[in-house]
């Protein structure tokens, strides 16, 4: 199909979705504000559902027009390319951010709920196990997909089950033991959107929980930069080495490309100093990977996700 026909057919498809979903669907939404790097081009179609029923209906419509779907959480682990994202980008709206105590030790939380809010809700209900979430800046959905964690904790250890929706709009629950979790990932299929999850803790004195939260937050403040445009650790640690050790050993820690830099406080944190392009962050990532491989023979694996068109 030539470019003009493609554009016209795309416009028709968008107009159909706009008629049904009104203000919840946008065209060419600039994604930079949805990523912690503050980078990224437009999304061909951007959708913020305000209910599960609306999301389910939307997924069925999208299936008819055969568009690729990308899910964004809080964008604290995602570099979005400058050319933007083709197809449909879905970001769960505020109705997907909720917290309920369903019995003495179990919380039911919406996938868009921020980790920090889960941690504070658990503390307010005298539930321990959630303290580490106070220093991870993402949402619950992203945390489960990434199996996020710190200081020997990770989300899979407190997870009971997840509620998901598939590309046909069908909703079901998956028990934790049906999912294979590993360091910074899990095998949940890409076509599933997490809607909510149940998480389990244990009863503990509120003040003890608060102390633990503060201990983690202070540890992070001492070792990692804050108030910068970053997505945290860029590469995964290897079995035997921390990624930052390999980066330092390979003399990459002072490298930069334009305004894409490496944090002097933690050299696995890559930073948009203000006016970097996503392509510059990606070039810096690739240069670092190459140099570390040349120097150590180790192939660093990305922890952050890179999405969008090249
Ligand atoms: C300063 C800083 C410190 C950090 N420290 C840590 C740390 O200590 N430990 C750690 O593990 N991480 C850390 N991170 C990385 C990041 O916060 C985590 O990976 C976080 O869990 C990502 O959540 P998110 O909602 O931002 O996900 P996003 O970046 O939006 O998405 C990550 C992945 O999850 C998928 N996803 C998101 N929501 C859903 C959903 N509802 N359904 C299906 N898929 C979904 C996306 O498609 C993508 O593949 C840090 C990041 C920053 C910026």
Largest sheet: 5 strands, antiparallel
Level of helix content? 25-40%
In sequence order, what are the helices and strands, one letter per element?
Answer: HEEHEEEEEHEHEEHEEEEEEHEHEEEHE
Count of distinct structural domains: 3
Bound molecules: flavin-adenine dinucleotide
What is the terminal-to-terminal distance?
21 Å
Q: Please indicate the percent range of residues in DSSP E strands (runs of 2 or more).
A: 25-35%
Structural class: alpha+beta
How many H/I helical runs? 8
Overall morphology: globular
The strand count comes to 21
Gyration radius from CA atoms, angstroms: 20 Å
- Low-pLDDT stretches: none
**Shape-level CATH architecture of the largest domain:** 2-Layer Sandwich
CATH topology of the largest domain: Uridine Diphospho-n-acetylenolpyruvylglucosamine Reductase, domain 3
Q: Overall pLDDT, averaged?
A: 96
Strand line-up across the major sheet: 6-7-15-11-12
Description:
By secondary structure, this protein is of the alpha+beta class. The protein is built from eight helices and 21 strands. Helices cover 32% and strands 27% of the residues. The longest helix is centred in the first third of the chain and has 19 residues, at 3-21. The chain folds into three domains: 3-91, Uridine Diphospho-n-acetylenolpyruvylglucosamine Reductase, domain 2 (2-Layer Sandwich); 97-212, 2-Layer Sandwich (Uridine Diphospho-n-acetylenolpyruvylglucosamine Reductase, domain 3); 225-307, Alpha-Beta Complex (Uridine Diphospho-n-acetylenolpyruvylglucosamine Reductase, domain 1), CATH 3.90.78.10. The chain has a five-stranded antiparallel sheet. The protein has a four-stranded mixed sheet with strand order 1-2-5-3.
């Amino acid at each position: 199909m030539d470019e003009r026909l493609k554009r016209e057919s795309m416009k028709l498809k968008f107009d159909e979705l706009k008629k049904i979903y009104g203000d919840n669907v946008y065209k060419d939404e600039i994604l930079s504000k949805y990523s912690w790097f503050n980078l990224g081009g437009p999304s061909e179609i951007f959708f913020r559902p305000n209910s599960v029923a609306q999301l389910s209906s939307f997924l069925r419509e999208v299936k008819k027009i055969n568009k690729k779907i990308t899910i964004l959480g809080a964008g604290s682990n995602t570099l979005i390319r400058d050319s933007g994202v083709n197809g449909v980008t879905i970001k769960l709206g505020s109705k997907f951010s909720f917290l309920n105590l369903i019995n003495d030790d179990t919380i039911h939380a919406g996938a868009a709920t921020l980790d920090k809010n889960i941690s504070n809700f658990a503390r307010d209900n005298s539930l321990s196990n959630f303290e580490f979430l106070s220093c991870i800046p993402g949402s619950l959905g992203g945390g489960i997909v990434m199996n996020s964690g710190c200081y020997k904790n990770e989300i899979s250890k407190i997870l009971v089950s997840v509620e998901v929706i598939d590309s046909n709009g069908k909703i079901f629950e998956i028990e934790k033991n049906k999912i294979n979790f590993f360091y910074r990932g899990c095998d949940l299929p890409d076509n599933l959107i997490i809607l909510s999850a149940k998480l389990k803790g244990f009863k503990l004195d509120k003040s003890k929980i608060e102390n633990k939260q503060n201990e983690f937050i202070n540890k992070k403040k001492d070792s990692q930069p804050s108030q910068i445009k970053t997505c945290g650790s860029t590469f995964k640690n290897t079995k035997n080495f921390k990624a930052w050790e390999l980066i330092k050993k390979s003399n990459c820690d002072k490298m930069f490309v334009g305004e894409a830099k490496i944090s002097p406080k933690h050299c696995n944190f890559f930073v948009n100093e203000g006016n970097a392009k996503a392509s510059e962050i990606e070039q810096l990532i690739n240069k670092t990977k190459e140099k570390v491989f040349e120097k150590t023979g180790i192939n660093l694996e990305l922890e952050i996700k890179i999405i969008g068109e090249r």
